[in-house]
Amino acid sequence: MGKLMLRVWFVLFCLNAFAFGQAPAVAAATKTVVFLGDSLSAGLGVKPGEAFPALVGEKIREAGLPYQVENAGLSGDTTAGGLRRIDWLLQRKIDVLVIELGGNDGLRGLPVNALKANIQAIIDKVKAKEPEAKIVIAGMQIPPNLGPDYAAQFQRVYGEVAQANNATLIPFLLEGVGGLRELNQPDMIHPTAAGHRKVAEVVWRTLEPILRRG
Predict the structure, then answer these.
(1) What's the CA gap between 113 and 165, in Å, rounded?
(2) Which residues of 157-181 are buried (b: 16+ CB within 10 A; e: fewer)?
């Protein structure tokens, strides 16, 4: 009878604790995934919750993984802009950094060697502050408007930087979305909400194994 009464008391205690918001906290260290990007990450033209970083955050919660997403997407940003911002972002701990930059560099025809140097400098700063941080590089492609040689060199940069830094590469962020009118806004650059769902799936295929390994 004594054990039964103890169990009843414990259940009543827990119910009261939940009722008054005093339930014992669950010890779970939350890590951070930061998306350092441009208007694609920022979700230009769609609602904030429809942008692919937010959708990836939903997938993380559904999977029960101890990570939260911080969207550091800024419309119009370049790799040079990302490099200027990374010190501010590093004031908080970064466990996984997804670098989604370079599209605006390519659209402006900026030098490919500067693109490569800026991404490398971002990685160097992150590794100096957070040596255990995982780096994911989202590859981009551009139309051959500035010539096929420039487009090819531009595309190769992402793989070269990923390989040099033992980073994980998403070969093409807009796989299955880029160039498809039904998944892009009228500018044919920025995905619609449906396009962002596709992008989130592309990112999640690469990111999920990293997060599960911790």
Answers:
(1) 16
(2) bbeebbeebebbbbbbbbbebbeee
Residue 190 is among the residues annotated as catalytic for this protein: yes
Under a CB-based contact definition with an 8 Å cutoff, are residues 88 and 56 in contact? no
Residue 141 token pair: 């492609």
Q: Tell me the pLDDT tens digit for each residue of 102-123.
A: 999 999 999 999 999 999 999 9
> Looking at 39, 77, 95, 105, which residue is catalytic?
39
Tell me the mean pLDDT in the region 21-49. 80
Residues 114 and 135: beta-carbon distance below 8 Å? no
Short-list 184, 202, 186, 153, CA closest to 53: 202
SS3 state of residue 25? coil
Q: Which of 38, 77, 105, 190 is catalytic?
A: 190
Paired tokens of 86: 């990374």
Q: How far is CA 183 from CA 103, 180, 195, 214, in A?
A: 18, 6, 5, 33
**Does 41 qualify as catalytic in the annotation?**
no
